[in-house]
Amino acid sequence: MEAVKELLASVPQGVQAAFAAVGLLYVAARLLASLGFFLDVFVLGGTNVSATGSPRKRRRLTVRPPRSSASMAAKAAGPS
Questions:
Q1: What are the residue boundaries of the structural domains of the chain, listed by start?
Q2: Sign of torsion, CA 7 10 11 13?
Q3: Signed CA dihedral, 17, 22, 28, 31: sign only
Q4: How many whole angstroms separate alpha carbon 46 and alpha carbon 13?
Q5: Measured at the alpha carbon of residue 43, what is the angle toward residues 41 and 46, in degrees to the nearest 5?
Q6: Alpha-carbon gap, residue 36 to 30, rounded angstroms
Q7: pLDDT of 33
Q8: What's the CA gap between 1 and 8, in Å, rounded?
Q9: Each residue of 50-61: pLDDT tens digit?
Q10: What's this model's pTM, rounded to 2 decimal places?
Q11: What CA dihedral angle connects 19, 20, 23 and 27, to 10 degrees?
């Protein structure tokens, strides 16, 4: 620990302040990037929540069974 204190004592105050400023800018940039990511993912998604929020409001998709070849042939033949 004494070696670190001696090393810091030998570095001029202006250089220490410059390194501290660069470190502070880096940390601030990382925090802003994390905040932007959080807002993009959870807040500013662009999806209208009121349209998809309630399951009762959503329209159910009905899946029809495939037509058999016999019913298609009867339809093509016309009315009987």
A1: 1-45
A2: positive
A3: negative
A4: 48
A5: 85
A6: 10
A7: 95
A8: 11
A9: 655 555 555 556
A10: 0.48
A11: -170
CA–CA separation, 1 and 35 (whole Å): 36
For residue 16 the two structure tokens come to: 């220490």
CA dihedral (58, 60, 61, 66) in degrees, to 10, reads 180
Q: Can you give the chain as a three-state secondary structure string? A: CHHHHHHHHHCCHHHHHHHHHHHHHHHHHHHHHHHHHHHHHHHCCCCCHHHHCCCCCCCCCCCCCCCCHHHHHHHHHCCC
| Per-residue tokens: 76 | 């093509």
User: Residue with structure tokens 């001029």?
Assistant: 12
